[in-house]
Amino acid sequence: MKQKFDIIISTCVPLPLENVDTDQIIPARYLKATDRAGFGDKLFFDWRYDKDGQPKKDFVLNDPTYGGCILVAGKNFGSGSSREHAAWAIAGYGFRVVISSFFADIHKNNELNNFVLPVVVSDDFLAELFATINDNPKAEVKVDLPQQTVTNLSTGRSQHFEINAYKKHCLMNGLDDIDYLINNKPLIEEWERRNK
User: Fold this and answer.
1) What is the pLDDT of residue 178?
2) More confident residue, 1 or 141
3) Higher pLDDT residue, 181 or 94?
4) Euclidean distance between CA atoms 175 and 188, whole angstroms
5) Side-chain half-sphere CA neighbours of 60 within 13 A
6) 158 — phi, psi (to 5°)?
7) Is pLDDT above 80 for 109?
8) What angle do CA 19, 22, 27 make, to 5 degrees?
9) Does residue 132 contact residue 139 with C-beta atoms inside 8 Å?
10) E strands of 7-140, at which residues?
11) For residue 32, what is the DSSP state?
């Protein structure tokens, strides 16, 4: 899952539903596992599959019209419980970016910790993205982490997004928190020597 993040240009998967909570992202019955492997198959499980485990043709992840590594989701994405498994499922499915006009804070941080970039945009920019994808499922979006911009390439409209400087550094360098500490071990040891 560790991947350096720079600029991504991709088509998008639209999920124009508001208040998608973590139980909808990954049902609670799958939370016993402690290994991240296989969670992509469980993403939105109850929406993707019927009671017999067959794909529901009307759900967007089962529609070959849509694809790409960017999920465009409705407002208030990732609310509910703090389960990190929801971010595991999103990353495991192959999404690198989730765009919404609002994220639950804990879920937003869980995505960042799992090398998925949550991009917060205005309500009207989000509505424009949904309209663009609806008109042309092959429309692409550019997410530029160094510049902190997201651009609808069909309209040329861009928005700036905020990200914590530390998390930006980690994403751009493919580092998790432990990697970051190991990379800074000489600085930490020097600080300890100076502050005995």
Assistant:
1) 77
2) 141
3) 94
4) 17
5) 19
6) -125, 155
7) yes
8) 125
9) yes
10) 7-10, 12-15, 70-73, 97-100, 117-120
11) T
pLDDT (average), residues 56-66: 96
Beta bridge partners of 72: 14, 99
97 vs 187: CA distance, rounded Å: 32
For the segment 153-181, what is each residue's pLDDT rounded down to a tens digit? 999 999 999 999 999 999 999 987 777 67
C-alpha 79/C-alpha 54 separation (Å) is: 27
Q: To which residue do tokens 């939370």 refer?
A: 31
Q: Is residue 98 scored above 90 in pLDDT?
A: yes
155: left (phi over 0), alpha (psi -120 to 50) or beta: alpha
Q: Is 142 helix (H, G, I), strand (E, B) or coil?
A: strand
The identity of residue 180, as a single letter, is Y
Residue type, 138: K
Only one residue has tokens 């967007």, namely: 60
Q: Within 10 Å of residue 183's Cβ, how many Cβ atoms?
A: 11
Task: Dig out the tokens for 178 from the structure.
Answer: 């432990």
Q: Tokens for 4?
A: 């350096």
For 121, the token pair is 């945009």
**Separation CA 13–CA 183 (nearest Å):** 36
And the tokens for 56? Answer: 């529901």
- Cα separation, 164 vs 80, in Å, equals 23
Residues 30 and 42 sit within 8 Å (Cβ to Cβ): yes
First to last CA, the chain: 38
- Cβ proximity of 92 and 26 under 8 Å: no
